[in-house]
Write a structure and sequence with these properties.
four-stranded antiparallel β-sheet, 10 strands, Rossmann fold, Arc Repressor Mutant, subunit A, alpha+beta, 2 domains, three-stranded parallel β-sheet, 7 helices
């Protein structure tokens, strides 16, 4: 999978933190000291990228960006692991090209309402459950627990592997109880995959 880019503009302290752990991130980071340098840099596909800046004035109009391309987190302080989780969620949404709805073999995943539905039955999902589903359908092969841990939860050395398993167990149980579907997310030795046709 080609890594997406995260542009960090005029936020050197954040860049230095992420640069220290860049080998463990599922995205690439590009630093710009100011907005003017970012506007001049035409070497990257920014439509498939995320921008983090201390000041968001003019970023949309100068590079024709959608608000989804800009991560605006206002709560300080924020844990690094929480920030990386926010970045990963936003990048997955961007990869789906601003679709609000994704079809998965008879199911409809609504990214705006955070629901999955089939035959007029609707189930509310958490942000993390949506991220798991999107990651599994986008990367249509088998994934180890460690792969899911890195690419969905981000850099989390101390995170226990049962966190991934617990989230997927709960998601599978919700789908099974609501839709009587036991093959939505399948297991293989040490990991998970989805064997679904989707549009």
């Amino acid at each position: 999978m080609i890594k997406q880019n995260v542009f960090i503009i005029n936020f050197n302290s954040l860049y230095e933190i992420l640069d220290e752990i860049k080998d463990n991130l599922s995205f690439d980071i590009i630093n710009h000291v100011n907005k003017e340098n970012f506007y001049k840099d035409k070497s990257f596909d920014i439509k498939n990228s995320l921008i983090i800046s201390k000041s968001y004035d003019g970023l949309n109009t100068n590079r024709n960006l959608d608000d989804k391309n800009i991560l605006n987190f206002q709560e300080y302080p924020i844990l690094a692991i929480k920030l990386i989780e926010l970045i990963n969620v936003q990048l997955i949404k961007i990869r789906f090209n601003y679709q609000s709805r994704v079809s998965i073999k008879g199911y409809e995943l609504n990214l705006n309402s955070k629901t999955i539905s089939k035959d007029n039955i609707v189930l509310k999902l958490t942000e993390k459950e949506i991220e798991i589903i999107l990651y599994l359908i986008e990367n249509n092969n088998k994934h180890s627990v460690l792969d899911l841990q890195k690419n969905i939860w981000g850099y989390a050395v101390d995170m226990e592997t049962h966190t991934v398993e617990t989230h997927i167990y709960r998601l599978r149980k919700k789908i099974s109880n609501k839709f009587n579907e036991d093959r939505f997310i399948l297991s293989h030795s040490g990991g998970y995959f989805m064997e679904l046709d989707y549009n």
